[in-house]
Amino acid sequence: MQDLPLTERPAELTERADAAGNRRRILAAAAGLFAQRDPEQVSMNDVACAAGVGMGTMYRRFGDRAGLTFALLGERHRAFQDELLRGAPPLGPGAPPRERLHAFGRRSLELLDGDARLLAAAGAQGSSTLGGPNVSYRVHLTLLLREAAPAIDAEYAAETLLAAFDPRLHLHLRHERGFSLRRIQDGWCVLCDGWLAAEGAGGAGT
């Protein structure tokens, strides 16, 4: 069994004390500004001014606003990944793969419900520096799908299930269509079960 690749360890574990202090101030300032107004209306300069650092420090540390956003969200996703690897079942090891898949989808959508505006703002910037948490979650989904239904095209199935975590789609469903979080979570589990049911309907794609 392969290991789920974790996001990078926090930079402050290896950097100088002053650089770590700057990083903490920047992330705290960004969190405060994002909570006050639409993240798309918050610029790197706004965050730099609130944190009391120069723009050079901002770009060296985070590259762009998307990088800043993912750094802000990174700690939460590292904790989630730790639950996937070492937590209690069904989210963690020890439960049947179908139960783990459902738990993963429900928890991922719960996290997305709080992060969607930030992630949508980051995606709108077209960042080339970070791919977001789905890079590692893709591996986790694929492994569980292969375990639950060896005959399906697990890689393609994982891509279709990850597509449901698109932040702009989530915002549309929640705030324009009025879907409840529970409805979206239940729908994701039905999609997942559809793939597992395909196990008996034919082999994997070529």
Question: Can you walk through the features of this model?
Answer:
The protein is mainly alpha-helical and 206 residues long. It folds into 2 domains: 11-62, Arc Repressor Mutant, subunit A; 72-200. The chain contains 9 helices and no strands. α5 (97-124) packs across α9 (181-197). The longest helix is centred in the middle third of the chain and has 28 residues, at 97-124. The radius of gyration is 19 Å and the shape is elongated.
Short structural description:
The chain is mainly α. The protein has nine helices and no strands.
Q: What topology does this entry show?
A:
Elements: H1 17-36, H2 44-51, H3 55-62, H4 65-86, H5 97-124, H6 134-148, H7 154-163, H8 167-176, H9 181-197
Helix pairs in contact: 1-2, 4-5, 5-6, 5-8, 5-9, 6-7
H/I helix tally: 9
Helix content: 55-70%
Task: Note poorly predicted spans.
Answer: 1-7, 9-14, 125-132
Shape: elongated
List keywords for this structure.
mainly alpha, Arc Repressor Mutant, subunit A, 0% strand, 206 residues
